[in-house]
Design brief:
Elements lengths: L2 E7 L6 H14 L2 E4 L2 E5 L2 H16 L3 E7 L7 H32 L7 H19 L6 H18 L20 E4 L5 H14 L4 E4 L8 E2 L15 H8 L5 H15 L9 H13 L4 H20 L8
Length: 317
């Protein structure tokens, strides 16, 4: 596989500010240093762009920088380099795991308290730290999925015992293959996300209709009396993930965004929610047809899922 390499030097008399700023940017980029003064990332478009911006900053500080593609390193195999990336993330995940354990202890200690605002704040900071590491976990360290599950477990524990916390019955995929689905017209975030989920994870050949008048043989979702709808404090997308036992971490990140836009309760405070909400509102204001809204929505959620999973979606799931 290919790699992109960045190396730089600053004038000896340069102030410490550019050095510190560059070091911090390199840390956030997820780059590793197999050799002193050499920073390496996978040969991906976003990684090349990150190094190119850093090179520009070095040049503005009167320094010198080089960005190059490398096919292999002498004395280092690709698996060894990949393990260096995973080891870097492993250390960061370990710190998050320790913090999560402390949050869990605080949650148990405050179990009888109705005010969990401090724990929610700590959990939100923890989730943001995890997101920062996951974004540069280029080779999907095994520890990442475990930490994601741990954070989701803490979120669920905070909700347990509330009147709105309702169980969702499990169903099997085979029951919902070759079926026709129906939901309300003018689909917004929850219905668009569900349409994407149906087509990509449940039945690629599904027919989805937009109407307020469902037929007896149709599977209803996100409408009055629907088979799949809001359940307790869950939006329909979250209900369907639970019902079909779809537990992939990237899907749960998408679910958090959909939840924040649809229910507006600020539970996850996903930074992507505001921008996506504006885009969706723009589509509605533009008067797009239901089929056009679905088509654009599927492209949008495909992009989100691919970005968060960091691997191509498998066709024909």
């Amino acid at each position: 596989m290919g790699w992109v390499v960045f190396s730089y030097s600053l004038p000896s008399k340069a102030s410490s500010s550019p050095r510190v700023a560059l070091w911090r940017r390199l840390q956030r980029s997820g780059a590793i240093t197999p050799k002193a003064g050499v920073y390496v990332l996978p040969d991906r478009d976003e990684c090349i762009e990150a190094f190119q911006w850093l090179a520009q900053e070095v040049q503005q500080a009167k320094g010198e920088a080089v960005v190059m593609r490398v096919e292999r390193f002498e004395g280092l195999t690709d698996p060894q380099i990949i393990e260096l990336f995973r080891d870097s993330c492993r250390k960061k995940y370990s710190e998050i795991e320790s913090e999560a354990a402390n949050v869990e202890k605080a949650l148990h200690a405050a179990k009888k308290s109705k005010n969990n605002s401090e724990i929610l704040e700590r959990l939100e900071k923890l989730r943001k730290k995890y997101t920062e590491v996951a974004q540069v976990d280029f080779f999907e360290s095994p520890e990442g999925a475990g930490i994601a599950g741990q954070i989701r477990g803490l979120q669920q524990a905070l909700r347990q015992g509330s009147p709105s916390d309702s169980a969702v019955a499990s169903v099997t995929l085979s029951e919902y293959r070759d079926r026709r689905w129906v939901t309300r017209p003018r689909p917004h975030v929850d219905r668009l996300a569900c349409a994407w989920l149906i087509r990509q994870f449940i039945d690629p050949k599904a027919e989805i209709r937009y109407s307020t008048d469902p037929q007896p043989d149709e599977v209803t979702f996100d409408m009055r009396g629907a088979e799949f709808g809001h359940k307790g404090d869950r939006c329909t997308f979250e209900t369907m993930l639970s019902a079909f036992n779809l537990n992939e971490p990237a899907l749960h990140v998408v679910a958090e965004i959909v939840h924040d836009i649809d229910l507006r309760d600020g539970r996850y405070a996903r930074p992507e929610a505001e921008g996506i909400d504006i885009i969706l509102k723009g589509w509605l204001l533009a008067g797009l047809s239901d089929s056009e809204l679905e088509s654009r929505g599927i492209a949008l959620f495909d992009g989100l899922y691919t970005a968060f999973s960091r691997r191509p979606r498998l066709a024909g799931r």
